[in-house]
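name: query_chain
kind: protein
chains: 1
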Amino acid sequence: FMINHLTGFIKSVYQNYFEIASCLGASGIILLAILMDSILDLEACPMCIMTRYVFGMIAVISLIGVATKKLFILNKLLIALSSATGLALTGKQIYLQNLSVEQIANLPMGCGMPLGIQIEYFGFFGGIANAYKGGPTCAEVNWEFIFNFAEWGFIFFLVYFVGSISKIFRQRNH
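structure:
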């Protein structure tokens, strides 16, 4: 009985409030990550910072989608593209987190310096590429609740990706 209400609620939100829910969800994830950094005294690695920026892109694109219904397909494509970027980032971080200690020791130092400094030193694309290589800092798991940050991010990006792509196909069939 309760499951039916929950699935009905989720279906209603997906059908009628996808953009608002996406914006609030992505914004909430960023806020939660910042709060947890502060409360648990964690320091986000460059890959984590890039992940937050991708959630930020999804939030902004979703907010624009609320105001511009005429750009429906473009909006959903941009959410899907941002989500795919997030899947690549979090997927790489999950891969790094599952390496052996010896393999981690042999990683480049792509996560060795803060993202802002890398972008300043290597330029925007060079800094992003260098940070994406990863390193020992990005392989650390500092917090877990069932899953760690990267795994939770992967799950949310997958939900955004599947949700936006299915919205496109549903729109095209109507």
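note: The helical segments are 2-40, 46-67, 72-97, 101-105, 115-122, 124-133, 136-139, 149-172.
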